């Protein structure tokens, strides 16, 4: 269980836009171990999807550039592979589930065909065998009357059922890594729980490692082994679920936790949304990206980018509050909570 | 489905009925009399002619008679050509028009599809700019201007193709090419923007994420989905070709329906103008109907109520 | 396997992350210093107004800008061109019939006064004055006639587009504003009108009204407004259901404010674009009608009439066709490109 399957190392991704270069991911690093679930959380626009898509190399080649860093799958750099080698891996070793099941299936192709297509691309199967696999997968993800549903079109399914189809499609070749980019954001709350349970179930059976991207900490609490918190294109804090939830060290993480309704806690405690808006990635320079919204901002935060440090309890934080030179209180909660 | 079809057909008939009625009464308002040189005719001669064509009846009776005949496919007699029925004139003339029209449609569709698809695949390349420019020229330059220039340079100056003779297959080429320019441009622009739209869709990323090779993604997902709505262009294209034939047949002396129509307008042959108007309208309504049916088969999201799911 | 890749934390060599030496950061910087509120407000994306943004997008569009310049130029020529020489558009001079174009200094471009047989007509017929675009069979100056014709064609198109706009906005507005049964009936009427090929209706009406500027305009407007009405109705319906309209209603925004701040910018865009495409369509129909003999009567000239005349004698006097054909083509291309540019610039879908 502890073998690393995927490593993202100091990844920087930039886009060419009409207004100039925009660096959306600016130094993301994490390891993913076999069979584990790593949650990446952060506000929208923090670079979660860009990170995920650069692993799959699904970003538009013409306008995207990995300016620094590397992505290593199973010991080999994905960035140095040929186009052909990358497409061989896609769908068979690394798969992806997208946010909106309403748009992520081809509306004019039967769902069975859409699953078979991927299977036949990666495995030498006859049409009948591929169809059988598609059927198995639909059953596996709990679609009732799967035999009849193979020949249905996406619009004949509900949102939740469609997301099951997308998951079936992603898992059809038994990938080692599944990247789920906000897989339940577009769904009703009750359906969300079903889909998450399904993913957990399937993970047990298949030992797939999951990168679960979300901005919902409730989902994280349910699913994740480890958590990485992203802000402004960087991972600002990373550690085990318990560490992040019960011993957060980054002001942004704390802010996120405080803005979450907690199921098992006193409801009378008021919710604290984080004031301010996400940084503009196009104009972001040196310094901590969170400085403009942080309740603990120091002079150093404006000019120097904080480095990753390891806390005593063993998780990594990028925040100047960790530095020995900090004068005054370092207690996040004391100054962070309302008077 | 049955209900939807019946409803559609009902609506088509109502539309057609309104067109026929409006045309009929507009014709009553037309200046002059339907006969050439009425001054030379004596009153008694005129009376005989009027009686023959039923023009001595009250308008209401004429109208009812016209509708009655129309239901049986009888569009009446030409006022200019002794004894010719409008129906027979249309059926004599429809052949050449249909031939050059369909040929233009095929030429335009093929070139337009190729241009549009290549353009979208090489988005923002020189090739793209080139074909976009061609398409804008094709949409903008009036077909009769293009036809006249074509006739002058290819026919008169270079003498490659017959100028204005209706003899053999080669004489269908210039008119078809002239007609096809708008078709090419329309199709190229349409398919290009459809392709660009489809390429940006989430399900294309899904297809790539499955590991499909790029050409599989393009052929099976992008082009397939972009082609489906092209069918809806057939209605407007039919109109554009129909419009085009009116002038282009005149320019290239094609003995088709369009030429007959413009001729009849000049000599005020009322019954022929009316007959061809009704024929064109019916054809257009029918094409739109057929296109809708085809489209509902091609796009599984459309159910027979004609609404998207 | 990949033993040389450390697990967690991924980067032991932390110094390598940034260029500066961490130990050298002065420790007096580690005191609280929050950004002041104004500065943090600036951090969010600046909100440029919709029209300003659209305008910026438009001027970046080369095709649209060139078209705009061309149109300004052509409109200027249409207005002043006829008075740039001493001829009038209707004055005949049979002694100077069918003179080829001649411009001093532009002989190499074909403005050399030679007919298709290569004979210099000006020398042969001892004509002292130069006709820049040549003359027609009655000896009327084509330069004057072409610009006069452009003037008339543009006039017809602009008036038709304006009437379409007025009728379309009223019809579409009423239909979408009242909704329900009224909307239903009004939509059925539109559907029927859409079921008829435009050109047929136009031809029938011209036959009834007899050719002339007014009748051409009227005939085009009879079917032309339908497109505008549909655009307006669609936009208003879409906006009616949108949250920001409801929201500003509940926040007590006054009606004029609602209309000027929210409705207008959203409805104006599609309306402008539709007008931009209506104008070339009208120019085309006018020329088309003239070409099949339903256009203006001599001596009035429009581009269509000139093209028709030119076409008839194209074999021997190609210049008679080429000038009006060129002008109409440039006008059509420019309006279409400008329309495209405006659509791209004003498309609210592109708003981030
Ligand atoms: N193809 C692209 N071209 C330019 N900018 C992009 C592109 N994709 C994403 N971005 C920008 O990158 C930033 C991060 O986006 P994303 O990763 O989608 O955020 P999220 O964390 O919500 O998934 C955003 O500011 C977005 O505008
Ligand atoms: S580095 Fe400074 S601004 Fe950034 S989170 Fe830490 S204390 Fe706040
Ligand atoms: Mg995202």
UniProtKB/TrEMBL annotation, chain A:
Superkingdom of origin: Bacteria
Membrane-topology annotation of the record: Peripheral membrane protein
Alphabetized GO MF terms: ATP binding
Subcellular location: Cell membrane
Keywords: ATP-binding, Cell membrane, Membrane, Nucleotide-binding, Transport
Domain ABC transporter intervals: 6-257
Keyword Transport: yes
One Pfam assignment: ABC_tran
PROSITE patterns in the record: ABC_TRANSPORTER_1, ABC_TRANSPORTER_2
Main location: membrane
The keyword Nucleotide-binding appears for this protein: yes
Similarity comment text for this entry: Belongs to the ABC transporter superfamily.
Full protein name: ABC transporter ATP-binding protein
Record organism: Planococcus wigleyi
Lineage of the organism: Bacteria, Bacillati, Bacillota, Bacilli, Bacillales
Automatic annotation (TrEMBL), chain B:
Species annotation: Planococcus wigleyi
Membrane topology of the entry: Multi-pass membrane protein
Subcellular location: Cell membrane
One Pfam family it belongs to: BPD_transp_1
Family of this protein: Belongs to the binding-protein-dependent transport system permease family.
Domain ABC transmembrane type-1: 94-295
Protein name: ABC transporter permease
Keyword flag Transit peptide: no
Annotated keywords: Cell membrane, Membrane, Transmembrane, Transmembrane helix, Transport
Transmembrane spans: 9-30, 98-120, 132-153, 173-191, 226-248, 268-295
The keyword DNA repair is annotated on this UniProt entry: no
């Amino acid at each position: 269980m502890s073998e690393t399957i995927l490593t993202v190392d100091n990844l920087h991704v930039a886009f060419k836009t009409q207004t100039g270069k925009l660096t959306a991911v600016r130094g993301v690093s994490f390891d993913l171990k076999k069979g584990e679930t790593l949650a990446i959380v952060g506000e929208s626009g923090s670079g979660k999807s860009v990170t995920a898509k650069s692993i799959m190399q699904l970003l538009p080649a013409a306008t995207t550039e990995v300016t620094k860093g590397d992505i290593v799958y199973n010991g080999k750099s994905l960035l140095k592979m040929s186009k052909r080698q990358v497409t061989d891996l896609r769908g068979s070793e690394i798969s992806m589930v997208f946010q909106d099941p309403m748009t992520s299936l081809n509306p004019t192709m039967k769902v069975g065909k859409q699953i078979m297509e991927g299977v036949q691309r990666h495995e030498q199967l006859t049409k009948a065998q591929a169809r059988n696999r598609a059927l198995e997968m639909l059953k596996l993800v709990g679609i009732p009357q799967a035999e009849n549903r193979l020949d249905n079109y996406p619009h004949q399914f509900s949102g939740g059922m469609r997301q099951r189809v997308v998951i079936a499609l992603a898992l059809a070749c038994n990938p080692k890594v599944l990247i789920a980019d906000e897989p339940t954001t577009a769904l009703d709350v009750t359906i969300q729980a079903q889909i998450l349970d399904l993913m957990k179930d399937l993970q047990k059976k298949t030992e797939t490692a999951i990168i679960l991207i979300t901005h919902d900490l409730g989902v994280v609490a349910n699913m994740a082994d480890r958590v990485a918190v992203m802000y402004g294109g960087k991972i600002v804090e990373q550690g085990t679920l318990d560490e992040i939830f019960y011993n957060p060290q980054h002001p942004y993480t704390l802010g996120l936790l405080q803005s979450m309704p907690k199921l098992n806690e006193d409801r009378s405690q008021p919710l604290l949304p984080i004031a301010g808006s996400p940084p503009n990635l196009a104009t972001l320079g040196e310094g901590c990206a969170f400085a403009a919204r942080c309740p603990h901002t120091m002079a150093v935060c404006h000019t120097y980018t904080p480095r990753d440090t390891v806390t005593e309890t063993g998780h990594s934080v990028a925040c100047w509050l960790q530095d020995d030179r900090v004068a005054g209180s370092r207690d996040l909660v004391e100054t962070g909570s309302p008077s | 489905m049955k209900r939807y079809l019946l409803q559609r057909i009902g609506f088509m008939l109502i539309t057609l009925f309104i067109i026929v009625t409006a045309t009929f009464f507009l014709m009553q308002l037309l200046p002059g009399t339907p006969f050439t040189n009425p001054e030379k005719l004596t009153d008694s001669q005129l009376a005989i002619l009027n009686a023959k064509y039923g023009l001595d009846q009250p308008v209401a009776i004429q109208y009812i008679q016209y509708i009655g005949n129309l239901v049986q496919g009888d569009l009446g007699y030409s006022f200019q050509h002794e004894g010719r029925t409008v129906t027979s004139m249309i059926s004599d003339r429809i052949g050449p028009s249909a031939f050059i029209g369909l040929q233009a449609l095929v030429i335009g569709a093929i070139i337009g599809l190729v241009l549009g698809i290549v353009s979208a695949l090489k988005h923002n390349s020189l090739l793209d700019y080139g074909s976009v420019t061609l398409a804008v020229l094709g949409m903008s330059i009036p077909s009769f201007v293009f036809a006249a220039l074509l006739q002058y340079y290819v026919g008169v100056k270079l003498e490659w193709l017959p100028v204005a003779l209706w003899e053999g297959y080669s004489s269908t080429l210039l008119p078809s090419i002239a007609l096809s320019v708008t078709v090419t441009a329309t199709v190229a622009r349409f398919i290009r923007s459809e392709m660009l739209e489809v390429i940006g869709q989430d399900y294309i990323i899904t297809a790539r994420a499955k590991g499909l090779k790029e050409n599989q993604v393009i052929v099976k997902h992008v082009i397939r989905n972009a082609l489906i709505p092209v069918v809806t262009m057939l209605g407007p294209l039919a109109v554009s070709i129909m419009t085009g034939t009116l002038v282009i047949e005149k320019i290239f002396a094609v003995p088709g329906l369009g030429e007959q129509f413009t001729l009849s307008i000049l000599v005020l042959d009322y019954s022929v103008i009316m007959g061809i108007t009704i024929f064109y309208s019916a054809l257009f309504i029918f094409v739109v109907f057929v296109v809708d049916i085809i489209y509902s088969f091609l796009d599984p999201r459309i159910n027979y109520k004609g609404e998207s799911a | 396997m990949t033993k040389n890749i450390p697990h967690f934390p991924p980067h032991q060599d932390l110094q390598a992350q940034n260029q500066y030496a961490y130990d050298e950061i002065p420790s007096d910087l580690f005191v609280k210093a929050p950004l002041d509120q104004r500065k943090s407000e600036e951090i969010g994306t600046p909100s440029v107004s919709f029209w300003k943004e659209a305008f910026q997008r438009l001027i970046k569009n080369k095709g649209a800008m060139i078209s705009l310049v061309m149109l300004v130029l052509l409109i200027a020529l249409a207005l002043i061109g006829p008075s740039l020489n001493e001829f009038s558009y209707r004055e005949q001079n049979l002694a100077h019939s069918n003179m080829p174009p001649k411009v001093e200094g532009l002989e190499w471009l074909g403005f050399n006064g030679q007919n298709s047989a290569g004979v210099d007509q000006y020398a042969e017929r001892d004509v002292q004055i130069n006709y820049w675009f040549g003359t027609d069979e009655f000896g009327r100056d084509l330069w004057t006639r072409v610009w006069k014709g452009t003037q008339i064609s543009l006039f017809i198109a602009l008036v038709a587009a304006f009437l379409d706009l007025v009728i379309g906005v009223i019809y579409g507005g009423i239909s979408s504003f009242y909704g329900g049964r009224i909307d239903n009936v009004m939509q059925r009427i539109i559907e029927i009108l859409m079921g008829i090929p435009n050109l047929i209706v136009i031809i029938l009406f011209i036959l009834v009204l007899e050719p002339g500027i007014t009748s051409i305009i009227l005939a085009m407007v009879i079917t032309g407004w339908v497109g505008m009405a549909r655009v307006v109705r669609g936009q208003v319906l879409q906006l009616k259901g949108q949250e920001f309209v409801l929201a500003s209603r509940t926040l007590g925004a006054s009606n004029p404010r609602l209309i000027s701040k929210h409705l207008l910018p959203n409805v104006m865009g599609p309306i402008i674009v539709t007008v931009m495409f209506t104008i070339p369509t009208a120019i085309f129909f006018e020329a088309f009608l003239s070409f099949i003999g339903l256009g203006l009567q001599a001596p009035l000239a429009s581009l269509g009439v000139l093209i028709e005349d030119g076409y008839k004698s194209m074999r021997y006097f190609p210049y008679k066709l080429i000038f009006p054909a060129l002008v109409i083509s440039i006008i059509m291309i420019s309006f279409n490109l400008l329309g495209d540019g405006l659509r791209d610039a004003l498309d609210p879908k592109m708003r981030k």
